[in-house]
Design brief:
globular; 8-stranded mixed beta sheet; binds magnesium ion; 6-stranded antiparallel beta sheet; 34% helix; binds adenosine-5'-diphosphate; VC0802-like; Carbamate kinase; binds aspartic acid; alpha/beta
Length: 406
């Protein structure tokens, strides 16, 4: 019997009716003859509400306690789903992340999965159970509860699929697949039948929240096919895989935007060895991830250094580098928290000239100023004003004719 892992996101389990809908879908998959593992997110906006509650009782909620609190959202949906399945006559059992054997490091709120010990899941599957696992959570060596980062239930699902050697991992959500851009922002965006892991990883890492980027990373590493589809229809969805893609003619596959971008500039930095290392060592020690880094050419051995962080990390980043700025003799440190990134992504752009020029021209014609630019082999990202993010995605979608298919 094949093992199939299905994951249902928050909007798919938002109320009792929707939980019953998920129960019917999981039971149908079991009836088709597969072993079924279901991963669930917390109901609707539960995680946001729990974070708000924590902020009401404390200015700085303790990291460990916050993860314990947030993990309860997924416990509610997983237990309710097991009850719904049982009331339909299906055999089902819910397991917390810890019970499912999901071991993580101890980086609260951003924990990484170190390994999965799936013997309990396997035992339940062998007894014919539909096994429901609370997404987004794991357990440390010390038995402390951790969470994997917002949107992390996707990563739970792919990690389980890999460790159970499942045939595929199905992620069910409120859209019927991966689109050329967020369909809430670009109404004429087109659903993709398939997309490569590398392209999906860049889209997800640069703001397409339809799938957690670490889920794509894991899928690519273990060659696990991932399907993104709607929990409210039977349409086939989008397959994320590593094989040859049919739509090769389309050089730009998709466009993403991320409004969670802030910029820090260290002004008047003496241009000598060790200065960048001092700044970025301090940030790394504080667990702050940096994205774009730009160092200007120096004039009279003085330069400026700019980098981007997420908006939530900005205050911490400024605090961490303040003493470093003083010790290296830089003039000052400024920041801008009202930025966004917009990215064009496509494996077909590799070594084909003209994409950057076309992107910059489209933004220029729309009156959108570019603050910073970064690229990878298959991505070009512009940092722009936050208020222009939606316009930028729509303009680029049109410029690269993404509504038109390959
Ligand atoms: P879930 O709760 O099921 O995990 P999410 O809200 O995390 O769902 O992700 C689904 C949402 O992702 C969609 O409602 C859509 O607005 C957004 N999204 C962003 N970029 C894309 C894209 N390229 N294709 C499809 N959906 C996208
Ligand atoms: N409930 C968590 C969140 O809202 C995890 C998830 O939905 O994947 O981020
Ligand atoms: Mg999600």
């Amino acid at each position: 019997m094949a093992i199939v892992v299905q994951k249902y996101g928050g909007s798919s389990v938002a109320d009792a009716d929707k939980i019953r809908n998920v129960a019917r879908r999981a039971a149908a998959a079991r009836e088709r003859g597969d072993h079924v593992v279901v991963v669930v997110s917390a109901m609707g906006e539960t995680t946001d509400r729990l974070i708000e509650l924590a902020n009401q009782v404390s200015d700085h909620p303790d990291d460990r306690e916050l993860d314990g609190l947030l993990s309860t959202g997924e416990l509610v949906s997983s237990t309710l789903l097991a009850m719904a399945l049982r009331s339909m006559g299906a055999e089902a059992i819910s397991l917390s992340g810890a019970q499912a054997g999901i071991r993580t490091d101890a980086v609260y709120s951003h924990a990484r999965i170190l390994g999965v010990k799936p013997h309990r899941i396997k035992k339940e599957l062998e007894q014919g159970m539909i096994v429901i696992v609370a997404g987004f959570q794991g357990i440390t060596e010390e038995m402390d509860i951790t969470t994997l980062g917002r949107g992390g239930s996707d990563t739970t699902a792919v990690a389980l699929a890999v460790s159970l050697k499942a045939e595929r991992c199905e992620l069910y959500t409120d859209v019927d697949g991966v689109y050329t851009a967020d369909p809430r922002i670009v109404p004429e965006a087109r659903r993709l039948d398939e997309i490569g892991y590398d392209e999906m990883l860049e889209l997800a890492s640069y703001g397409a929240k339809v799938i957690h980027s670490r889920a794509v990373e894991l899928g690519e590493l273990h060659k696990m096919p991932i399907i993104v589809a709607s929990s409210f229809s039977d349409k086939p969805g989008t397959v994320i895989h590593g094989g040859a893609l049919m739509e090769v003619a389309k050089k730009v596959r998709g466009i993403s935007q991320d409004v969670n971008v802030a910029k820090v500039t260290v002004v008047g930095v003496p241009d000598r060895t060790g200065v960048a290392s001092a700044i970025f060592d301090a940030l790394a020690r504080a667990n702050i991830s940096i994205d774009t880094i730009v160092q200007n050419a120096s004039i009279n051995r003085i330069t400026d250094l700019t980098f981007t962080v997420t908006k939530n990390d900005l205050t911490k980043a400024m605090k961490v580098i303040d003493p470093v700025v003083k010790s290296i003799g830089a003039r000052e440190c400024t920041s801008d928290s009202k930025l966004a990134s917009v990215s064009i992504i496509g494996a077909g752009m590799q070594s084909v000239p003209g994409y950057a020029a076309k992107m910059f021209r489209a933004l220029y014609e729309a009156g959108i100023n570019i603050e910073l630019i970064t690229t990878s082999e298959i991505r070009i990202t512009c940092i722009i004003d936050e208020s222009k993010a939606g316009d930028a995605v729509r303009v680029l979608h049109r410029a690269f004719e993404l509504e038109q298919g390959a």
